[in-house]
Amino acid sequence: MKFKKKQASTKQSVPTASLPDIIFMLLIFFMVSTVLREFDVKVQFTLPAAKQIEKIDNKRIVSYIWVGRDGRVQVDDNLVLIPEIQNLAARKRQVIPNVIMSLRIDEGSKMGIVTDIQQQLRKGDALRINYSTLMKL
Amino acid sequence: MIRKRASRDVEIPTSSMADISFLLLLFFLVTTTIDVDTGIGLVLPPPVEDTEIVKVKTQSLIRVLVNAAGDVLLDDEVTSVQQIHEIVANKLRLNKKLIVSIKVDRETPYRVYIAALDEIKQAYNILREEYAMETFNLPLRNLTKAQMDEVREAVKQSISIAEPERTR
């Protein structure tokens, strides 16, 4: 008797024709979710930690103010003086009406500087702020 | 005479398409930052010139004063930062309409201010947790969005950042 190995008549390779489509789908997801604008932070800071923190879901409406260990203040990509913040905040408010100013302030900073920045923001009518903090465990 | 057209394959080779899109995908994968910003949200009051100054009775205020050394004066009683949430929660339990006013010295470190603000937020959180237990018999994190809004409405946060005495 002759034994013949049964073999399926189908091709043995995984069909890869739809592979680009799948990859493109992933690609589009990442393209949409990426916010490319990254800032060159020129000041050194360590954020404080807190328990009752909330998330900012929409990164696009957030604008950052950094205050470094040495008391220098940075808005966007430039180091600024505190009296300049009013105009910057007002301009941001025009571009994004519901802007959230995220304050990334070094934990050792004096409150005087923080109060001064807040006064400037009030004058510039950017009233929604967020003290950026880390999660305290 | 009609020239015979050579029967060539006129398809664009698409086998490398996957590789190209993989490359793009990798680029976006590497550049994406998924981490979200976390922090303590606040809404500042409008500038002083535009608003009439509302006089608030001292009985309806919880005054939290923090000095440069990190000592806390809570309604004329000296405490520490870690105790704020208990005292404030107790006071709020008696009268929910109290406004918590926080005032800090210019020399106070930012970390102490954040800690104090965090403590006040915790006090409100304790009250919200209690309210949720009473009305829905569920802990705060198990509530639906509508229920959460109701709790937020019932236990409103009223934190006032005191007007600074001198600024630049």
Q: Could you characterize what this model shows?
A:
The complex is a heterodimer of chains A (137) and B (168). Chain A has 137 residues and is of the alpha/beta class. Chain A has a five-stranded mixed sheet, with helices on one face. A two-stranded parallel sheet of chain A has the order 1-8. Helices cover 28% and strands 22% of the residues of chain A. Chain A contains three helices and eight strands. Chain A has a domain of 87 residues: Nucleotidyltransferase, domain 5. By secondary structure, chain B is of the alpha/beta class. Chain B contains four helices and six strands, in the order αββββαβααβ. A five-stranded mixed sheet of chain B has the order 4-3-2-5-6, covered by helices on one side. The model of chain B has no long low-confidence stretch (mean pLDDT 80). The interface between A and B is large, with 56 and 45 residues. Strand 2 of chain A pairs antiparallel with strand 1 of chain B, so a sheet runs across the interface.
Short key terms for the protein model shown above:
heterodimer, A: 137 residues, alpha/beta, Nucleotidyltransferase, domain 5, 5-stranded mixed β-sheet, two-stranded parallel ribbon, B: 168 residues, 4 helices, 38% helix
Query: Using DSSP, what is the number of strands of chain A?
Result: 8
- Apparent shape of chain B: elongated
How would you name the oligomeric state of the polypeptide chains in this document? heterodimer
Judged by helices, strands and strand pairing, the structural class of chain A is alpha/beta
What is the N-to-C succession of helices and strands of chain B?
A: HEEEEHEHHE
